[in-house]
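User: Just a sanity check before I run the rest of the batch. Below are the structure tokens for the first item. I only need the designed sequence back.
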């Protein structure tokens, strides 16, 4: 019997030992969970038992340079969600039915959300209060107090719809900026989300009696742009007109910059699009065929119109670039007297490294010329000769100083850089073509920035479109400082080049940009858009007033195919003149030949929307404004057809005799 007893004791001892080990392990595990993982598990439990409904902040408002005109604003809307676990089983079908009816959605899809085993489901985002008020009334009438949530939300709205569309950009459904200023300054504009929190079980039912915890959203900061709504509207008006009249197949752009501080006063692109409907067809031609297009084609078309060509597309600047060559040559002392007769001679062309490069007027050479005459005549051999004397190394040094080898750092997304041959690969022929503006590519914003350095006395300024931010919490206005990149040329050189540019407008190829009473300088340009494409880019860059420049205007037109041809002097220069004639008086610039200034009364554009075309004609006639009806047909019933769009918008300051463009359904 003794062995059996010993065996039993051994088993008991082993059992106790194992039990003790298990207890020790459990205590150890409990301690690990309590002290090591306690914080993490507590946080996880809180997250599982807490239902958050986010509260979107109001996105900051975007104003034009006056601080009065609102270009983008967030309006209050509401978002509707449901907690399926808090809706009684007998109410689910009728809740689904009313939600489907009010928000015009599929009943079966709504019912699936209402009966789903989840804590929260979204029914409708960013709906007008008129609809949610109907839901509130129904809930009160049916005694339903839980399970349906109506939370405040925001929706982006652009009061001027198409104005400055490529600059402002637009937002996605989650209020995130997707393009333009909206994207570049998203961190400033978007604010901080708030939340409504309450404790729930796994099915969304409430736990305890704590109620809801409300965390306020913090609204985004406001931005004040350098863009002036009136100047932007003027630029867009004339750009649309010239692109239509001259059949510019690839559109165009206009940039207006203050050379003293880099402020972009206007940046217009044609065609533009409606910021409130960025995914819709934007031309009458597209609207007719939109539903038949593949999604890939729609996407390509939309991305093309969203693109800000003034900063994202490169082109050959042509003869406008001769002012850069002239500046470098004068600064280096190659030309001391810009009026020295016989310093240059045009024989119709010049031979460079065995290649004969012709002057545009090779059939009737310019003959003996000074540098001033060379610029007025836009004579290629003059500037080829200057390029040869400068040499590759010196010429590229000036390209760098003028910020033509680097991005300008304008505060907009998607800026492209120039395309130049590497300095060590540029031979005599390449240097020759660069010197008169061909066989390289830059962006319009790069050219405007370079010419602004000439206009302001020789200083390189960084262009900008935002000048101030306004703190949403304190209302404090913070100025965004002007940035510079140092001196490019001397003031003396600047004055000489500006004097020659004035002669170009007074008597040379830019004479179509003249404006009575104002001293205006400029340079025209015509270049090929690619090699052997049969397409051209036509441009004009103007500066005014010459004795104290306040504006640099660049007009760039892509492939004009109308009867007016494709020469910069005939197509682009007149647009520059039209812009100067309206913008200079608007800015109250009086320098120049004041006795020649034609005094034209200014008025505010009347509101023509929702009026008949006949009424619009009467109003514009009374105000001495020309009315242009787009897509007018002989069958148009002017007594009953309603005006749906007008450019410029109501309230914009214009001169009598200006045009207002209207569209109808």
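Assistant: Here's the designed sequence for the first item:
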């Amino acid at each position: 019997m003794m062995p059996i007893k010993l065996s039993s004791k051994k088993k008991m001892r082993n059992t106790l030992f194992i039990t003790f080990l298990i207890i020790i392990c459990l205590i150890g595990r409990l301690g690990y969970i309590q002290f090591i993982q306690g914080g993490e598990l507590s946080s996880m439990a809180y997250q599982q038992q807490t239902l958050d409904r986010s509260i979107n902040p109001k996105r900051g408002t975007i104003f034009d340079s006056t601080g009065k005109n609102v270009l983008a604003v967030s309006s209050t809307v509401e978002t509707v969600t449901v907690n399926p676990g808090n809706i009684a089983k007998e109410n689910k079908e009728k809740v689904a039915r009313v939600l489907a009816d009010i928000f015009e959605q599929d009943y079966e899809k709504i019912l699936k959300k209402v009966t789903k085993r989840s804590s929260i489901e979204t029914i409708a985002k960013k709906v007008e209060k008129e609809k949610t008020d109907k839901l509130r009334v129904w809930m009160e009438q049916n005694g339903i107090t839980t399970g349906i949530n109506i939370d405040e939300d925001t929706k982006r709205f652009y009061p001027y719809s198409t104005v400055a569309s490529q600059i402002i950009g637009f937002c996605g459904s989650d209020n995130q900026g997707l393009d333009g200023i909206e994207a570049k300054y998203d961190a400033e504009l978007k604010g901080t989300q708030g939340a409504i929190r309450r404790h729930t079980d796994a099915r969304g039912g409430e736990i305890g009696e704590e109620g809801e915890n409300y965390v306020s959203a913090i609204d985004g900061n406001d931005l004040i742009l350098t863009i002036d709504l009136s100047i932007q509207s003027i630029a867009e008006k004339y750009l649309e007109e010239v692109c239509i009249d001259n059949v510019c197949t690839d559109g165009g752009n206009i940039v207006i910059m203050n050379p003293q501080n880099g402020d972009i006063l206007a940046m217009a692109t044609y065609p533009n699009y409606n910021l409130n409907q960025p995914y819709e067809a934007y031309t009458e031609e597209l609207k007719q065929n939109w539903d038949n297009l593949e999604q890939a084609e729609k996407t390509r078309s939309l991305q093309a119109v969203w693109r800000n060509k003034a900063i994202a597309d490169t082109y050959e600047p042509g003869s406008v670039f001769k002012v850069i060559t002239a500046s470098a040559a004068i600064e280096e002392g190659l030309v001391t007297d810009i009026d020295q007769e016989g310093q240059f001679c045009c024989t119709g062309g010049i031979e460079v490294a065995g290649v004969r490069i012709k002057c545009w007027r090779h059939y009737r050479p310019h003959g003996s010329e000074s540098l001033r005459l060379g610029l007025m005549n836009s004579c290629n051999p003059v500037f080829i000769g200057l390029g040869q004397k400068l040499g590759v190394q010196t010429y590229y040094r000036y390209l760098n100083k003028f910020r033509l080898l680097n991005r300008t750092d304008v505060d907009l997304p998607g800026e492209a850089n120039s395309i130049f041959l590497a300095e060590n690969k540029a031979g005599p022929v390449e240097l020759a073509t660069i010197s008169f503006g061909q066989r390289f590519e830059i962006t319009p914003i790069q050219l405007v920035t370079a010419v602004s350095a000439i206009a302001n006395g020789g200083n390189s300024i960084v262009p900008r479109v935002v000048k101030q931010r306004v703190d949403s919490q304190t209302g404090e206005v913070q100025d965004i400082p002007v940035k510079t990149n140092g001196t490019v040329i001397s003031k003396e050189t600047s004055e000489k080049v500006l004097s020659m540019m004035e002669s170009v407008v007074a008597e040379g190829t830019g004479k179509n940009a003249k404006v009575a009473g104002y001293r205006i300088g400029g340079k025209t340009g015509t270049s090929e858009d690619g090699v052997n494409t049969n397409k051209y880019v036509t441009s004009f860059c103007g500066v005014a007033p010459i004795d104290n420049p306040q504006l640099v205007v660049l007009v760039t037109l892509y492939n004009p195919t109308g009867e007016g041809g494709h020469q910069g002097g005939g197509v682009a220069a007149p647009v520059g003149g039209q812009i100067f004639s309206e913008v200079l008086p608007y800015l109250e610039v009086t320098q120049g030949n004041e006795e020649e200034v034609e005094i034209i009364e200014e008025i505010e554009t009347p509101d023509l929307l929702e009026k008949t075309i006949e009424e619009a004609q009467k109003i514009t006639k009374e105000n001495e404004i020309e009315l242009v009806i787009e897509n007018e047909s002989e069958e148009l019933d002017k007594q009953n057809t309603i005006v749906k769009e007008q450019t410029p918008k109501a309230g914009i300051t214009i001169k009598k005799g200006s045009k207002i463009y209207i569209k109808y359904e």
